[in-house]
Design brief:
There is one protein chain. The chain is an alpha/beta fold and about 260 residues long. The chain has a single domain, classed as 3-Layer(aba) Sandwich (Rossmann fold). It has 7 helices and 11 strands. The strands form 3 sheets. Strands 3-2-1-4-5-6-9 form a 7-stranded parallel β-sheet, with helices on both faces. A two-stranded parallel ribbon has the order 7-8. It has a two-stranded antiparallel ribbon with strand order 10-11. It binds 1,4-dihydronicotinamide adenine dinucleotide (NAI) and the ligand O=C1O[C@H](COP(=O)(O)O)[C@@H](O)[C@H](O)[C@H]1O.
């Protein structure tokens, strides 16, 4: 990727993981919602993804997009997800087409499929010996309006891929936490995404050749109910971390060489 890569939501947690891992790997153009506390080392702008003008300015001159900006709260109300997540994502896609962007990577979520976690399947599906897997070919099944907005983002990508030819990768991100997996939270450990695996999967999504993909963005956890096979096949994802290698905050095993 020779052209700059636009990273929206650059001031957030996922943005931090990506920038920490890939700081020097790309020419970044960062979009913040409010002025950053410290002057970034990269080109940046402040704007809102629901503003056509801000989005056009952000998209100017970029060859690829990682779109993270939005309301990330599972309990977010409809008004907010409609404006920040759905309308914002549609404006991003429209501007990406106008700019002739090649690749669009969208931060989807485990919450797009949250209703697969039925009373009958839980908590067993969160455990290492359970074989239940979602693999990205299933239809969305959101458990909240935030999940509806993420499923809608995936469908917007399908439309812009089919009608305008953009390469689109939807990463259904699990639970990103810094340093160690969530503690006393089986579900969170099953969908843990470490900071370095988060940077790596986004790197893969910028480098690989694909048409339209939906993949799960989790580390290679012993506990899992999301398959990472498609991310491996389509993107060359090779995660290094596993929530089973931790006892609380402590790493108790190293990744396999
Ligand atoms: N952190 C996680 O474990 C997961 C995150 N995601 C998704 O990844 C993306 C990033 O999440 P986080 O970094 O955790 O959230 P965050 O809240 O830390 O970062 C989101 C950023 O987007 C910005 N933003 C919000 N609305 C905006 C708008 N209208 N225009 C411009 N910027 C706006 C916020 O100011 C914030 O800096 C979100 O789309 C979220 O839904 C999905 C699954 C799991
Ligand atoms: O999509 C998201 O998912 C993570 C994990 O979900 P949770 O229900 O286990 O909290 C969440 O932390 C994050 O805020 C959200 O954007």
């Amino acid at each position: 990727m020779d052209d700059p890569v636009l990273l929206t939501g650059a001031g957030g947690a996922v943005g931090a993981a990506i920038l920490e891992g890939l700081e020097d790997a790309y020419e970044w153009k960062l979009m913040f919602h409010s002025p950053p506390a410290e002057e970034p080392d990269h080109e940046y702008l402040v704007g809102d993804v629901s503003s056509e003008g801000d989005v056009a300015a952000a998209m100017d001159g970029v060859g690829a997009v990682i779109h993270l900006a939005g309301d990330p709260r599972p309990e977010a109300p409809w008004d907010s997800v409609l404006e920040n997540n759905i309308d914002g994502t549609q404006k991003m896609y429209e501007a990406a087409v106008d700019e002739g962007v090649e690749k669009f990577v969208f931060a989807s979520s485990n919450h797009a499929v949250g209703s697969f976690e039925t009373d009958e399947r839980t908590p067993e599906m969160y455990r290492p010996d359970d074989q239940y897997r979602l693999d990205g070919t299933e239809l969305p099944r959101p458990g909240n309006l935030y999940g509806v907005s993420k499923a809608t983002g995936e469908v917007l990508g399908r439309y812009y891929h089919d009608q305008y030819g953009l390469s689109v990768c939807n990463i259904r991100i699990g639970n990103l936490t810094r340093g160690h997996p969530p503690i006393d939270y089986e579900r969170g450990q099953a969908m843990w995404l470490s900071y370095r695996d988060c940077a790596h999967i986004h790197d893969c999504a910028l480098q690989a050749d694909y048409e339209y993909e939906i993949v799960y963005g989790i580390s290679d956890n012993d506990r899992k109910y999301y398959s990472i096979e498609r991310a491996k096949e389509a993107l060359g994802y090779d995660p290094q971390d596993n929530s089973a290698h931790f006892d609380g905050e402590e790493r108790v095993a190293e990744p396999e060489p």
